[in-house]
Amino acid sequence: MKISPLSIFILVAVAGLVYSGIQPPVMVINPRALVLFTELETVDLPCKASGEPQPTYTWKKDKQDFNVAGSDDLISTVENEGTLVFKQPRKKDAGMYQCFANNSYGVAMSGIVELRLAFLQPYTNQEPETITVSPGSSLILPCNKPISYPEAKFTWLLKYSDGRLKVLDFTERIQMDHKANLVFANVQEEDSYKDTAYVCAATNLFLRRINMLNTIYLRTLPEQLKDYQIHILSASPSKMVFLKGDTVELQCIFGGHPTPKIRWYRNGKSIHPNTKYAFSKFNHQLDIRDAGFEDEGDYECHASERSSGQILQHTMRVEIESKPEWTTKPKSIVTSGGSSVTFICNGTGKPPISKPVWYINGKRINEYSNKNKFIVEETYLSIINVTRQDYMTIQCNISNIHGYIFADAFLSFHEMIRMERYPSDLEVSKGAEAIFTCAATSDTMQEDDLRTIWWKDGKAIAIDDRISLNSQNNSLTIRSVTRNDVGRYTCMVTDGLDSVNASAFLSVKGTQPPVILINPPTQVLFKEFQTAVLPCKASGEPQPTYTWKKDKRDFNVAGSDDFISTVPNEGTLVFKRPRKKDAGMYQCFANNSYGVAMSGIVELRLAFLMPYTNQEPETITVLPGASLVLPCNKPISYPEANVTWVLKHKDGSFKAFDFTERILMDHQANLVFANVQEEDSYKDTAYVCAATNLFLRRINMLNTIYLRTLPEQLKDYQIHILSASPSKMVFLKGDTVELQCIFGGHPTPKIRWYRNGKSIHPNTKYAFSKFNHQLDIRDAGFEDEGDYECHASERSSGQILQHTMRVEIESKPEWTTKPKSIVTSGGSSVTFICNGTGKPPISKPVWYINGKRINEYSNKNKFIVEETYLSIINVTRQDYMTIQCNISNIHGYIFADAFLSFHEMIRMERYPSDLEVSKGAEAIFTCAATSDTMQEDDLRTIWWKDGKAIAIDDRISLNSQNNSLTIRV
């Protein structure tokens, strides 16, 4: 008897989405922050955006609308771009410009660009100056630098009596300092020229213009060359800030005779040239290439002179800061609507970046009146309940004192592909024909734009002589169906970007115990009087019937006055108007004459948000600089409420509270002030904690608190912990670990994070949020276990305080081996395997036979359980059954089922008889067999002689009509 496969189909239709081509504008070419020009020489401000329909462009100058058309053709824009072209720019055209790209779905704006006139201040001729010095003494010749934009480049020249100029060759003894002055460590007779002068020259490279500045003649007195002690003539300041990525240039020029020798040190250790460090200007300058935070420190230049033994040093403290850099840029979102979407804008910088400034269609988000539509929380912008009217361009700006970065994205919507004709479940006889049909459509797309692809059990179907696809109606035809064709067939309609699909099962008629195909989730929430569904469906032949248990007792669906029903041909339970009494623990059972399968247990639970009893507003008074925790009286809610803080104004209006580095919400939803300042006290505005049950879409405004500060001077307070994650925590593999430390103190402490003693930097694994007060560890794995520390420091006092958190990772159960269905002919033993992994380790498997725990069966010798194995001994054709297995740990359980079934029995109807014939006669053996459900064509006859297959030839033949074997002797 052959295997009897699945005989029930499940139809799964998932709405697919196809991008329609509509797109709000997004800037693709932005002007630079600064564009220089010279009068009457063409200059352009580039600007171009993507978008569909194609955007149109406008400009603003100095925050006022700028009319390009009213410029007498001296200013124009490039076709199909916003690029602004000044053909003959003049001084009046200088200003701050900004480009706006607009279509009917949104507005994108560029960064602000300054159009600035380049200039070099004319030099007024002055009488040459003559300077006389003693040989060996030091000297600084000043360069009278002109005003220039961009800043001029300087050098010194020698000007001869005939007007010729020669670039001065700098030496170990003669250098130009950072201020462009010419510095002599010691003047010697050779530096004095009779008719040749020293001239400072300024070059504006953009204008390609040079100014010859002050002219100086140098004379030395007719004296003996003297020695002079080492002294500093010009040096970099004792404290300097540079930007990450720049080349740091530190300079020390010493005077004295003999000429001092220069050596450089960092944090007390000698510096040697390499890929990071280079010496220039005859060792008077140290260059630190591609500066990073690790290059911060104390640098020293030491000047020495061997004969006198004198040493003089100068120390320079180098600090590295940085412009803003992206860690997460906002990304465009294409959605189907009806839900909420979130854009993320985050970066890093030193000093820390400001909180992001969000723009919607070219306007700051706080200019929009619909405050409940847009929720800004630190680096997140959430747009609530988006509809197809919410096409928009979103832009985000983050900045610090060194500059800003600007990025844009858009919110757009898919064009819906709708499934018009779904494939139906099919159950056919072996050898018959199976035809699946499938069709989809779209409002704006032609049928030719859509492509239909068929899959079987997740793999593309190979088209051959037996399996064909009709391109006219997208039907799939399978001729001469065999049991190998049994499986799930999926029709996918796509335009190449997105898709919609539907699935059905093909089965061949036969016998199979039930197996659960659609399990309910472990929990289903409901609101009173709003329909709730507990899904359940099983395969099986004959088709299963379904029963339910509630709280481990039989549940009578028929006795529920039509308020509870099941879906035809399924066990799915539908509560049309559920009430509180319907809550409970439910379990579905699928039964046919060959076995019973049970679903996992599902909790049907009533969602609720405890009403808030109004309390009198509370007023809290604190000293300026002191820390404070405002408690949030969180209501009992299921599912757990999302909590935030809002400001309640005198007129009853609310405004979402903007958290800062100083004021944050902790994990308990309390509002925590690192230090309270006068600006936190509002005359008629209160702090209110708000709880939202997202499932119920209901908000409770909780305790109301007015904050007052005493009229005293702002004081400093030492660092102390206000709120922090516990010192030991367990998270689940795959979760995002959130570690939080909020410290009090004034000035506001700075937070740094460490793991196992090493500093943490943001990357794809780690992210800082809540102004560095929270460390997020994404997709946690066992390798992320360890000790994490948050360090709070305050520079002026030098105080450091730390908190350590031990992170341990555990996991829910996961399969390593799921039990598989077995089809056998009987008479032997069979073994099912059920194994998994988890942390803590999983329990030993719990086995169920036909919905009952295996230990409830009295025939102990029939079933043998050894660790992860279940063996069934001496199976017979009465042993059809459904086998189910459960493995669990403290974090949950997983459940799988399989069946034990049997091949169809073939019966011999006509046996061959013993034959005794004469030599040369003919011998004919006859043989025939049959089956209850199989056709004769399904059976194949093979003849053997003495254990070996018989070779058919001219003398030995096989009659395929009656399966007889003829031997001509």
From TrEMBL:
<feature type="domain" description="Ig-like">
    <location>
        <begin position="813"/>
        <end position="901"/>
    </location>
</feature>
<keyword id="KW-0393">Immunoglobulin domain</keyword>
<dbReference type="InterPro" id="IPR013783">
    <property type="entry name" value="Ig-like_fold"/>
</dbReference>
<dbReference type="GO" id="GO:0005886">
    <property type="term" value="C:plasma membrane"/>
</dbReference>
<keyword id="KW-1015">Disulfide bond</keyword>
<dbReference type="InterPro" id="IPR007110">
    <property type="entry name" value="Ig-like_dom"/>
</dbReference>
<dbReference type="InterPro" id="IPR003598">
    <property type="entry name" value="Ig_sub2"/>
</dbReference>
<dbReference type="InterPro" id="IPR013098">
    <property type="entry name" value="Ig_I-set"/>
</dbReference>
<feature type="domain" description="Ig-like">
    <location>
        <begin position="24"/>
        <end position="110"/>
    </location>
</feature>
<keyword id="KW-0472">Membrane</keyword>
<feature type="domain" description="Ig-like">
    <location>
        <begin position="222"/>
        <end position="317"/>
    </location>
</feature>
<keyword id="KW-0677">Repeat</keyword>
<dbReference type="Pfam" id="PF13927">
    <property type="entry name" value="Ig_3"/>
</dbReference>
<dbReference type="InterPro" id="IPR036179">
    <property type="entry name" value="Ig-like_dom_sf"/>
</dbReference>
<keyword id="KW-0732">Signal</keyword>
<feature type="domain" description="Ig-like">
    <location>
        <begin position="324"/>
        <end position="412"/>
    </location>
</feature>
<feature type="domain" description="Ig-like">
    <location>
        <begin position="906"/>
        <end position="969"/>
    </location>
</feature>
<protein>
    <submittedName>
        <fullName>Neurofascin-like</fullName>
    </submittedName>
</protein>
<feature type="domain" description="Ig-like">
    <location>
        <begin position="514"/>
        <end position="599"/>
    </location>
</feature>
<keyword id="KW-0325">Glycoprotein</keyword>
<dbReference type="Pfam" id="PF07679">
    <property type="entry name" value="I-set"/>
</dbReference>
<feature type="domain" description="Ig-like">
    <location>
        <begin position="122"/>
        <end position="211"/>
    </location>
</feature>
<dbReference type="InterPro" id="IPR003599">
    <property type="entry name" value="Ig_sub"/>
</dbReference>
<feature type="domain" description="Ig-like">
    <location>
        <begin position="711"/>
        <end position="806"/>
    </location>
</feature>
<feature type="domain" description="Ig-like">
    <location>
        <begin position="417"/>
        <end position="507"/>
    </location>
</feature>
<dbReference type="InterPro" id="IPR051170">
    <property type="entry name" value="Neural/epithelial_adhesion"/>
</dbReference>
<feature type="signal peptide">
    <location>
        <begin position="1"/>
        <end position="20"/>
    </location>
</feature>
<feature type="domain" description="Ig-like">
    <location>
        <begin position="611"/>
        <end position="700"/>
    </location>
</feature>
<keyword id="KW-1003">Cell membrane</keyword>
